[in-house]
Amino acid sequence: MARQGMKRNRDERDPDRLWLDNGDWYLVMEDGKYVAVHDKEQLGIYRGPEILLQTTILKYGRTTEDGVLVKAAAVPWFEIFRQMVRNPKFMFGFTRNPRKFEEFIAGAYHQDGWDEVTLTPASSGRRCRRRLPFCGPRGRV
Question: Could you tell me the residue ranges of all domains in the chain?
Fold first, then answer.
C-alpha cells in the first residue's frame, strides 16, 4: 500500500534533519535564512525566524512521575536564543505557543547547568498546580 498523503511516523524521519513539529516539513538554515522544505515534494519556502518556534527545541530523556527529563537543548534552541539577543521583540512569538516558551525556559535551566530539569505535562488550558521551578538542584518547569 502506498504511503501517499500520509504523514511519516517520527521513527521514519531522518534524525539529522530539523523537523517541524507537524507534518513532513523540515528546516534548513543557510546564510542566515530559514527554508522550510517539504520532504516528499522537495518544495522550499523561505521563512523568517518565527519558523524556529515550530521545531523541536529540546532533546528528551526518560519519562518520570512529574514529566519528562530534559536531556539537551537542540540546535533550534540556540538559534532561538540568538534571535532573542538580536531582536528582543522575537519573544512575542511565544505568545502564539506558550508551550514552546516553557520548553525554551526548561532548555535555559539545562544550559545553565542544573543537574536535572523536568518538563511537566502541558495543562491543556486547565488550571493546575505546578511546583516552582526553583526547587533546588532538580528544577521543574
Answer: 10-140
**What does the pLDDT look like over 73-93, one tens digit per residue?**
998 999 999 999 999 999 999
The helix, strand and coil proportions of the chain, stated in percent and rounded to the nearest 5, come to 30, 30, 40
Q: What is the pLDDT of residues 98-134, one digit of tens each?
A: 889 999 999 999 999 888 899 988 765 443 333 445 4
The DSSP element (H or E) to which 78 belongs, if any, is helix 75-86
Q: Are 2 and 37 spatial neighbours (Cβ–Cβ below 8 Å)?
A: no
- CA 99, 90, 75, 111 torsion-angle sign: negative
Instruction: For residue 59, give the DSSP letter.
Output: E
d(CA 106, CA 140): 8
Instruction: Report angle CA 36, 6, 24 to the nearest 5 degrees.
Output: 15
Beta-strand runs (E) in the chain = 18-19, 25-30, 33-38, 44-47, 58-63, 68-73, 116-119, 138-140
